[in-house]
User: Fold these one by one.
Assistant:
Number 1:
Amino acid sequence: MTRKHYRACNICEAICGLEIEIHGKHILSIKGDKKDPLSRGFICPKGTALQDIQNDPNRLRQPMKRKGDTWEAIEWNDVFDWVANQIVETQSKYSNDSVGVYFGNPTVHNYGSLTHGVPFSRMINTSNHFSATSLDQLPLQMACHFMYGHQFLIPVPDIDRCDYFLMIGANPMASNGSLWTVPDVPARIKELKKRGGELVVIDPRKTETAKVATTHHFVRPGSDALLLMAIIHTLFEEDLLNTGHLTSYISNTNTVKEASQVFSPESVSDLTGIKAENIRDMARKLSSTKRAICYGRMGISTQVYGAVCNWAIQVINVLCGNLDIEGGTLLTHPAVGFVKPGEGSPGHFARKHSRVRGLPSFSGEIPSVVMAEEMLTPGEGQIKGFITMAGNPVLSAPNGVKLDSAFENLDFMVSIDFYINETTRHADIILPPTAPLEHDHYDMVFFLFATRNTVRFNQAVIEAEEGSKHDWEILNELSSRIAEKRGESFQPLLEPSMLMDFALKMGHYAQEPGNIGALSIERLKENPHGIDLGPLKPSLTKRICTQDGLIDLAPDVYIVDIERLKKELEVKIDSKNINLDLKLIGRRHIRSNNSWLHNTHRLVKGKSRWQLLMHPDDMKARSLEENTEVKISSNANSVKTRVSASESMMPGVVSLPHGWGHDRQGVQLDIASKQGGVSINDITDDTFYDKLSGNAALNGVPVEVRATES
Ligand code: SF4
């Protein structure tokens, strides 16, 4: 019988509603759900590819145990005992920190991995907890923690009502938004321009978003912090401050003024590559336009001044009166996870430090740039055993080559994952959870960052195969066996939908009089397209979580780090030799998602897109022709790939996409392994990072490029 199912896509942050037509277990079609109040029928090519993951013969359906260079299927019961033994024995022999944990990005897209993964990680009780956060948005969480008192008080752009949008280092036309759940970006940008609004994009590449913007400025990689400080400088110098309803809620404005004094637009113009008059124009428009936004993402986060950039963007939105207003940046009102004083985990900084390099923790996580050295450096606390969940750090973390050898060095490794990829090929045991369409779904994270308040819960589309286990079942069982071996008691956690039912019934909409009333899983099941909870609205003044109830515009850590930024003003740019001093940046493509989704034929077909992009003048300076094989060398390593000329690149900047290079030995991804390309993270550098937050600097990496035959 043919049936229609409605559910959210959980591949990326846009959480688009899907309409899935199915016959038995056979998927006939996947389309956008026109009745989804957030995505309004939008879908990208990756949503359709969910069926390829479901049907992928390479997707593991049973636990696998390594036997030399081969794998054999093993019973769940045996495998749980083996894993629990390894963890307990290793921790007893050395210390708790001798077992490390890495949670990859898909963890936050699967609610069972969150509801049960966080308690599992607590049970492992190791300081060596790593995740994709410190390869991505850690500096934003840190800025919100220090300024608003909570790492998840993250304001998001209200694009549907704004008239001036300054976007730095973000490419939502390809990513569909990040730390900003905003499906159907193309239509939203069109609507912005139709109502006379401006979108100004700052990026070292004329990205897909820059191409549809009203204005694009190239910026030299790593100089965004100078640009942002120059905007702040202009706001003070030209008396453009307009803090509106937040005026009595902010502190330390004068400290920001003093800190910004040396960063005039004229002093940063050559360094950023942006004319001083354009920088001043940005400051004036941000201040004078009634509904304006300053927003930045990966390009400003994964770089050497990631922390300062994220802080400065928040400061600009406050100083221009654009924070907490309609058409500016606003907090969301999610059904679960509503942040207010006394709720959730506000975050903490530098409670611990990494053993070898001494990098600070954030909210209990050690920066992932130290993962390899913590495995490779002997001594007390050295990581001997490792657990990965839904992550592929060999392709996602800097210096993947070093991580490859670090994983080889371990006493044991376990991966909760359904692919044998570049990372999990090192594991002794792989525990595969069910595929996305085989389990129910509630988005615990991305409703927190959505451009409109909505809520939905979806049941599994396809019945899970007999004998398979959901992620939360794997985690429950592992926790239970570990407790048993330690002689501790353990009460298995309820299944995620029951936990969410409780959270919904206790959530924001149950507590607010006059609201839509309590939500529940039952009520959401009756509304499979989701429920619209309305547009974003101002609420920050009641939700600031700092001790004094004020927004701290100048936390000490940032003011201290600005001294480091000031030294950049002394750098001299030799514009005649700019082509000889190359900086490497990443890039995103709509048909790709981090290091995965290259094993689906529909997403890799057509013109290959893994080439190194380089400006034609930079190619000429090196006598390179189109498609020449080049060697790219960084401080960390070198790789060989093909180069392609692109006028969209800023001279002096080259770009490789993230997540390619699937030809490593032992990878069992039949389609992905046949693709060309190399991993950008073989040449990013684990010693190149943001000194304040410890976040990886994956953009702006100094490299040298030359023809391989020269
Ligand atoms: S943009 Fe694409 S991948 Fe992301 S949620 Fe929507 S359909 Fe899925």
Number 2:
Amino acid sequence: MRIDLHTHSSASDGTDTPGDLVREAAAAGLDVVALTDHDAMSGWAEAQQAGDEVGITVVPGLEISTRYGHRGVHLLGYLPDPTHPALVLELDRILEGRTARTPAIVAALRAHGIDISEDDVRRESGGSVAAGRPHVADALARLGVVRDRTEAFATLLSPGQPGYVNRYASALEEMIPLLVDAGGVAVLAHPWGRGSRSVLSAEALAELKDLGLAGIEVDHQDHSAADRAELRAIAADLDLVVTGSSDHHGLGKVDHDLGVNTTAPEHYERLLSLAGPSLGG
Ligand SMILES: [Zn+2]
Ligand SMILES: [Zn+2]
């Protein structure tokens, strides 16, 4: 059984529609695929329908933008009740922050002498409710300012760079219990990717587990072989679920092909068993 628990569609910053993504996952030989768009659950229905058509299990999920200390940390949530009032409210706040952020980034880049407009960004984001930095990066690439998304993030859009603008994110310590309250399963996405290793130590992970964290994404392209071995040992020590996934973004990210990392069936089963009825907020 091949299981990929982290993918993005055009409901956030992936390039495939939710339906196309699921069909591609089936074609890639996956048996289970989770749709985990950034702060958005709007792709679930279309993905589920495509899954029923092609005979692949679709796990509804999302990747929530949180902060922990002064760092941005991504939290995967699986199978939460999409109508849970407090969760819906918090996701709205995050999306609002993201929407307001894009014009601020464009203004900052313009102040830095780069000729980019909000229309350039809108052209890249299409109908996404989660227009954000990846779409600004795509616009910069199309305008020839950078070669690709990677260069845009490496030179312009990350903290400390000319096009970086802070935005609202939930506190991780509040989002984990909220997800659990909504009947969801909380798994930290790529905990040691993008410089987060310094804040997400074994001690921090133990504390987060006490708040309801169920697992960590160990097998991710942002983690070296050494990182993975160390994280796997921590997970075993703390009795956390271990997941692996592609973090596929369609054409939006190279080296993240569907199924490039997978989750072991026994860990997937355990994850499913932890999803519970929503407590209703
Ligand atoms: Zn992420
Ligand atoms: Zn992701």
